[in-house]
Specification:
Elements: H1 17-29, H2 39-75, H3 79-85, H4 90-97, H5 104-120, H6 125-144, H7 148-155, H8 180-187
Helix pairs in contact: 2-5, 2-8, 5-7, 6-7
Region (Disordered): 151-211
Biased composition (Basic residues): 198-211
Length: 211
């Protein structure tokens, strides 16, 4: 005859479940560990991923800000007109330029616009602007809609310039180049608002010369 185990008064079954719990308690007491990562290990992994993501975000942000400056130099557009091309507000451009939070979608949009304009770039803002604004601003409107391939086909490839930087804005002293924000301020007639960039004052470094 098969014997049936009874339930204890505490409600714990003696059908083997309680024995299993006791066995697990003994294993834990004897120092056995599960093969899954510990909490500290998971936290370390999470911290490492966060640091890597932070570095990647910083690199993307630096490239993004540089590309905005190069778009302005290639086209010679005002901030208002450039904002219209990018389908955003002028304030957004100011915020992005100042390093405030930007979405991945904005980064991709500026990157694609930069690639298209670098292809179209005639090497001089006046000439590039003339291409964009010709025939009722046809190329401008095509770029604005996101049809970058169509805009490139219609405009054709220009001779371009090094990152859209006109040669006459290169500092002749030692063949050094100013920061792109200085070149924007130097080549623009508009009054900057909201704390816009101003050209840096140059001063001679080092101790005064003695006769």
């Amino acid at each position: 005859m098969t014997a049936h185990r009874k339930f204890s008064s505490s409600g714990t079954s003696h059908t083997g479940f309680g024995d299993r719990l006791d066995f697990l308690q003994v294993r834990r007491h004897q120092g056995f560990r599960a093969s899954s990562p510990t909490t500290s290990t998971l936290l370390d992994m999470q911290r490492t991923e966060t640091d890597e993501e932070r570095l990647e975000a910083a690199a993307n942000s630096a490239t993004f800000i540089t590309q905005i400056g190069q778009l302005k130099m290639m086209t010679g557009y005002t901030w208002d007109r450039l904002a219209e091309l990018l389908s955003c507000s002028r304030q957004s451009l100011y915020n992005w330029r100042d390093g405030l939070v930007v979405t991945d979608a904005n980064i991709r949009a500026v990157q694609r616009m930069h690639e298209a304009l670098a292809f179209i770039d005639r090497g001089d803002p006046t000439e590039t602007r003339a291409i964009l604004e010709a025939s009722g601003a046809l190329i401008f409107k095509t770029l604005k809609t996101g049809d970058f391939d169509g805009a490139k086909r219609a405009a054709g490839q220009g001779r371009g310039s090094v990152h859209g930087r006109p040669s006459h804005l290169v500092n002749g002293a030692g063949e050094l180049q100013d920061h792109w924000t200085d070149r924007i301020a130097a080549s623009s007639d508009e009054t900057f608002e909201n704390g816009g960039f101003k050209p840096r004052k140059t001063s001679r470094r080092g101790p005064p010369r003695t006769k």
